[in-house]
Design a protein that fits this description.
The structure holds two protein chains of two kinds. Chain A is built from 17 helices and 17 strands. Chain A is α/β, with parallel strands linked by helices. In chain A, helix 1 packs parallel to helix 3, helix 3 runs parallel beside helix 5 and helix 8 runs parallel beside helix 10. The two termini of chain A are about 25 Å apart. In chain B, helix 11 packs antiparallel against helix 13. In chain B, a hairpin with a 5-residue loop joins strand 10 and strand 11. Chain B contains 13 helices and 34 strands. By secondary structure, chain B is α+β, with helices and mostly antiparallel strands. The chains are: A alpha/beta, B alpha+beta.
Chain lengths: ~375, ~600
């Protein structure tokens, strides 16, 4: 039913100069030279095999994430983007985001990325405290970050995101406030402020650093929200704030449970059909991916989602948006009637966690704070 | 083969403290007298239950009848009766001793005398038994038999001129022990022409034979097909089989006065053949039943609950089977909103409780949660009625209570000098009243009246720890004494949780309330709202803690592409909630309940 609707593309670049101890994304510390040519070719070969399925759908957004996509040269990025453009039609106002490290070795490439077709930069600043950056394993400094933000502006990027984290090891409330104020002063269009989450299988998990107490983290969170609001940044998702409605179109597609095709090692895709969605993901390791890319073997796993599962995934994503979703979207994305979950909606409404009116469903302030408890209610009772 | 001449019979009890080598010594006797072939000798045959063997203690009295040819070439029938070595089973001990004419007192040559041994020896002396001290483990490097002999004379006050030194482990001195038994122990007296009079020392349930009872015959004779009556229970049976343990169960045609043997008479469960009851002939009953039969009532109570509620039926069956063999185990169904379905069980003491618990878990594979032990209180109502209560819910309304009386035990503790001060302080903190202090050579005997509840909770462990393991303990029930007991209730956000209420001395209510409320605060996870945990006596709040509401519960980063991890997280969260019990709208993990209900971990 969504076969002619827009599609997002996610392009994964699975290398970093070094691994950060909190990161659980599919990234591999770079040893030796990055196989840029082979990888760029592989991405397009990967895409070619999906064309029979999605070739007619216009591309609304492209997100090059990682890893560290800015390890790719501007010409490699240009090859990828023009390759995509040759194969799929682009929406007129397409958003093309590239994640970049705010380190001096990369800032000088920003202008060339823009020429290659990138419309939006996302800078992984994380913090403006040098000691904190060192603890997080980041390879840039406060000064690098300040310069990178300026360089982005100078290179003509009028749409730029800064990634910040809070609730960091040893962080005090005033540090977090300083970070957000420094970020606001750089006037980005978008800010992502994530509370540090200790993920399994990361060095921070096996050797847990001392994190600030819950109440302090809560204060940081409130202070960040307040300052951003005062400075004209509207929170539209749990961790995302945008000025002048310049939300991340790519991420909005995730939250609104749209379809996306993932290219590159470990990239995830979701493609919808009338009453179900298919999720599949590519080989995680760069070498396996490169070896298997020309065949179906590049697909490491596949899962069909339907019924209650589909509803759960929809709610999991859509309720992360501050405004929730309009009722017709539910029907459109899940192919099911909202009546199936009316009991839970009523219960959550009674508990003061959810607003349900004739046209829209979204969380109350309280429900937004306890979103995990809200979403848990939609978890199907038996696993598939 | 077997001699029946009264002059050539010796009925001998073995008294020893745990670990002093009683069972090994018995094994030596069996070996020496050829009771079992070498192949049949597994270590410590007298302790037949696995659990007994593991813990090295005797729970049930056991006996063995051996043929011994003395140095003078005369055949004797030696009946050894093993006595339970723990305070919980002191009634069984006194019954076993009644059946004997003499006792050997086994004392570890390095450890010396301990409180339990003293108590059992005094019982033996009171019953008029001849005592033969046997100093065991003389092969140990730390052995000091002379000192231990002097200690026996000092503390127990018995003549040690005939004391024998031996090592059950190496076999050294075993012959001397056996010779001393036939030489110094008296032979039984009894009239075989009189009506049957026999004492039940022990009864146990065998899956194939039904109830098997161990008897000592004082008068008369016993044969298969005799009609018999249990005097205390008034029940009649027909003898199916009699015999002796050599230690193998061996049928005989007749048991005569003076002898020890077993009886099988189609008794359904052990309650039909209670320890201490007198067996007599139905047709010509004895006119003088043996004295001292007591209905033993449980002193310590605890709730046993299932970890998996699905096992309720097998739990009930297991308790039924255990009680076939254990007249002192009481149980009745109990439901707790916190812990689900279970049984309220009554035990003789802490060891008895632990043993039952372990047998249920090990032999029947039932996983249990055991609540903190309590004792039975006597309540006198305004109308003058007396009743026993063993749980807070049975307590009448405060306006109806005239008095609550708690069980007091007389406690005897034996320890080296240097620990006396600390032990006295500890006893006073436990609401103890000092009765006596006796200096007995290197050791000191302290006698205190203590509330039983204080003794059953953690007294023994504390005593051992303040005395570096040197102090030993014995106690017996003394009386019910008025005590200012009250009910301590717990409330979660104002909802009283009945299953958490405890009976406690008023003096301790506030302290304990504070302590438990704090522990619960630490164990109850933060919720979406503030949670108040309170402890109250009547309408008076004695302690309060607040669990501040969680500020938020939302995963910051959710990588839109891959939802599987987020899903796992939520599933874990959901599972965690399902394990909790809901009191009002508050989710409480079982550990928080257990913090109140279980004995504190020390």
């Amino acid at each position: 039913m969504q076969r002619s609707t827009a599609l997002s593309l996610y392009v994964h670049v699975p290398w970093c100069e070094s691994k950060c101890p909190y990161c659980d994304f599919n990234s591999h510390a770079l040893r030796g030279k990055l196989p840029e040519r082979a990888y760029v070719d592989a991405l397009l070969i990967d895409l070619d095999q999906h064309l029979p399925e999605v070739g007619h759908r216009p591309v609304n957004s492209i997100f090059m994430g990682g890893g560290t996509p800015s390890l790719l040269s501007p010409s490699a990025v240009a090859t990828v983007l023009s390759g995509i453009r040759a194969r799929l039609s682009w929406a007129p106002d397409i958003e093309v985001t590239l994640e970049a490290n705010p380190s001096s070795s990369e800032t000088h490439k920003f202008g060339a990325y823009r020429d290659a077709g990138v419309t939006r930069l996302s800078l992984g600043v994380q913090s403006f405290q040098d000691a904190q950056l060192a603890r997080l394993g980041r390879i840039h400094t406060r000064q690098d970050a300040l310069e990178a933000a300026q360089a982005a502006r100078d290179s003509g990027f009028d749409n730029c995101n800064l990634d910040l984290m809070f609730g960091l090891p040893g962080q005090r409330i005033e540090h977090a406030i300083d970070d957000i104020e420094t970020a606001i002063a750089l006037r980005p269009t978008h800010l992502s402020c994530y509370q540090l989450t200790i993920e399994p299988h990361t060095p921070f998990h096996s050797q847990a650093p001392e994190l600030p107490p819950d109440d302090d983290v809560w204060c940081m969170h409130r202070a960040i929200q307040l300052r951003l609001q005062q400075s004209g940044y509207a929170q539209y998702e749990v961790s995302a704030y945008a000025k002048d409605r310049r939300r991340s179109r790519h991420n909005m597609n995730y939250w609104r449970f749209g379809d996306y095709l993932g290219l590159g090692a470990g990239a995830h895709s979701k493609i919808s059909y009338a009453d179900r969605a298919i999720r599949f993901w590519k080989d995680k390791h760069p070498n396996d991916y490169l070896n298997h890319v020309a065949t179906e073997r590049r697909i490491a796993g596949r899962r069909e989602v339907r019924g209650r599962e589909l509803i759960f995934e929809f709610m999991l994503n859509a309720l992360r948006l501050r405004d929730g979703f309009e009722l017709p979207l539910f029907q459109r994305r899940t192919g099911q009637s909202i009546g199936r979950i009316i009991d839970m909606l009523d219960e959550l409404k009674t508990a003061g966690l959810l607003y349900v009116d004739g046209s829209r469903i979204n969380t109350t302030d309280r429900g937004y704070r306890f979103l995990d408890d809200v979403v848990e209610r939609f978890l199907p009772s038996t696993s598939p | 083969m077997v001699v029946h001449d009264l002059q050539r019979i010796r009925n001998v009890a073995i008294i020893a403290h745990v670990d002093h080598g009683k069972s090994t010594l018995a094994d030596r006797f069996i070996q020496r007298c050829g009771g079992l072939s070498a192949r049949e000798m597994s270590a410590q045959v007298l302790d037949s239950m696995d659990l007994e063997r593991e813990r090295g203690i005797t729970i049930k009295a056991q006996s063995v009848s051996l043929s011994y040819k003395s140095a003078g070439g005369i055949e004797y029938q030696l009946n050894f009766i093993d006595t339970p070595g723990h305070v919980d089973f002191s009634y069984e001990v006194s019954r076993s001793l009644t059946a004997c004419d003499g006792a050997i007192l086994v004392v570890d040559a390095s450890q010396g005398v301990e409180a339990q041994t003293v108590a059992n020896c005094h019982t033996a002396v009171d019953l008029g038994l001849e005592l033969l001290p046997v100093i065991n483990k003389i092969d140990l490097p730390a052995a000091d038999p002379q000192r231990v002999t002097a200690e026996i004379e000092n503390i127990i006050g018995i003549d040690c001129s005939h004391a024998v030194f031996c090592s059950a482990k190496t076999g050294q001195g075993i012959d001397e022990v056996l010779e001393a038994i036939v030489k110094y122990m008296p032979s039984p007296v009894g009239n075989r022409r009189e009506s049957l009079k026999a004492l039940i020392l022990d009864s146990w349930f065998d899956n194939y034979l039904g109830t098997v009872s161990l008897l000592r015959l004082f008068d008369g004779r016993l044969k298969a097909r005799d009609r018999i009556t249990m005097i205390a229970s008034g029940r009649n049976y027909v003898v199916e089989q009699i015999g002796i343990f050599t230690p193998k169960r061996t049928k005989v045609t007749e048991l005569r006065a003076g002898e020890v043997g077993y009886l099988i008479a189609g008794v359904k469960d052990v309650k039909g053949a209670r320890v201490g009851d007198t067996v007599t002939s139905t047709d010509s009953p004895t006119t003088a039943p043996l004295e001292g039969f007591r209905e033993i009532s449980p002193r310590v109570f605890a709730g046993l609950f299932l970890v998996n509620s699905g096992e309720y039926e097998s739990f009930r069956e297991a308790l039924e089977r255990l009680s076939l063999n254990d007249a002192s185990l009481h149980y009745e169904p109990e439901t707790s909103e916190a812990l689900g379905y279970g049984f309220r069980c009554g035990f003789l003491g802490m060891l008895h409780m632990e043993i039952i618990q372990e047998r249920l878990e090990r032999e029947y594979g039932i996983e249990l949660i055991t609540t903190a032990p309590t004792v039975a209180y006597e309540v006198v109502t305004m109308s003058g009625r007396r009743c026993m209560i063993d749980r807070p819910s049975q307590l009448p309304a405060p306006s109806e209570i005239k008095q609550v009386r708690e069980p007091i035990v007389e406690t005897r503790m034996l320890m080296p000098h240097e620990y006396v001060g600390t032990v006295i302080t500890m006893c006073i903190n436990k609401r103890g009243m000092q009765r006596d202090i006796r200096y007995l050579g290197r050791q000191v005997m302290l006698i205190f009246d203590l509330p039983l509840i204080e003794v059953v909770l953690d007294f023994f462990d504390k005593l051992k720890s303040v005395s570096r393991g040197y102090a030993s303990l014995d106690f017996e029930f003394k009386e019910f004494r008025p005590a200012d007991m009250c009910k301590l209730d717990f409330m979660i956000n104002g909802d009283k949780v009945d299953s958490l209420s405890i009976l406690i001395h008023r003096q301790q209510a506030q302290f304990r309330g504070r302590e438990l409320v704090k522990r619960m605060r630490d164990l109850i996870p933060r919720q979406m709202f503030d949670v108040a945990v309170q402890a109250a006596v009547g309408s008076r709040i004695v302690a309060r803690e607040t669990i501040r509401a969680m500020r938020k519960n939302v995963t910051a980063k959710c990588y839109g592409g891959d939802v599987s991890r987020k899903r796992k997280l939520l599933e874990k969260q959901k599972k965690g909630k399902q394990k909790m019990k809901k009191i009002g709208s508050v989710e409480i993990p079982q550990e928080a309940f257990m913090a109140v209900l279980r004995v504190e971990a020390k």
